[in-house]
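Quiz preparation item.
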């Protein structure tokens, strides 16, 4: 069962956060999330945080979705996402956006099954001081038009679905390392 998070859930949520993300949110970030949509699975094995940019707006962002590593694959992420999207639909949200690391194939697959489409990718740095540190990642920005049908094709693999969506909109990009050496990158 999915419910709204309470202050009592924060210790468990912080544990899941540390186990799920290389750069976890602070306690203060989670305290601010109580002003947004903050859902937890009843036993706090997972959580979802989403926000609407402003009152009476049409767009929302899923800021965090995580499930305890021991509970992944059990449907908790699907249940959290389903409940979160239902709340957003009730609020008349038309567009939902999120960012996800390209290496998190299970998460990308879940979002794709719900109808999210890759709209762009970006190279993000966890540390501005180092252009190519071990915490730098490539992220997809994914969007869901709440009033459109799911465009995911069950006849294609996850990789083929993403190649079809991404290659149509993304040019190659250039990455420059600390030593000044550059190289071109294609997603596939």
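Solution:
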């Amino acid at each position: 069962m999915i419910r709204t998070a309470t202050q009592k859930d924060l210790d468990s949520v912080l544990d899941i956060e540390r186990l799920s993300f290389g750069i976890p949110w602070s306690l203060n970030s989670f305290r601010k999330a109580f002003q947004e949509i903050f859902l937890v699975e009843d036993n706090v094995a997972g959580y979802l945080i989403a926000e609407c940019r402003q009152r009476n707006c049409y767009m929302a962002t899923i800021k965090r979705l995580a499930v305890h590593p021991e509970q992944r694959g059990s449907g908790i992420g699907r249940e959290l996402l389903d409940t979160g999207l239902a709340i957003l639909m009730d609020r008349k949200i038309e567009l939902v956006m999120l960012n996800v690391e390209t290496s998190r194939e299970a998460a990308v697959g879940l979002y794709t099954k719900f109808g999210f489409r890759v709209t762009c990718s970006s190279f993000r740095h966890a540390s501005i001081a180092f252009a190519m540190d071990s915490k730098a990642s490539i992220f997809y920005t994914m969007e869901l038009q709440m009033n459109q049908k799911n465009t995911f094709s069950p006849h294609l693999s996850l990789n083929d679905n993403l190649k079809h969506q991404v290659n149509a909109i993304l040019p190659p990009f250039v990455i420059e390392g600390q030593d000044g050496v550059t190289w071109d990158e294609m997603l596939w």
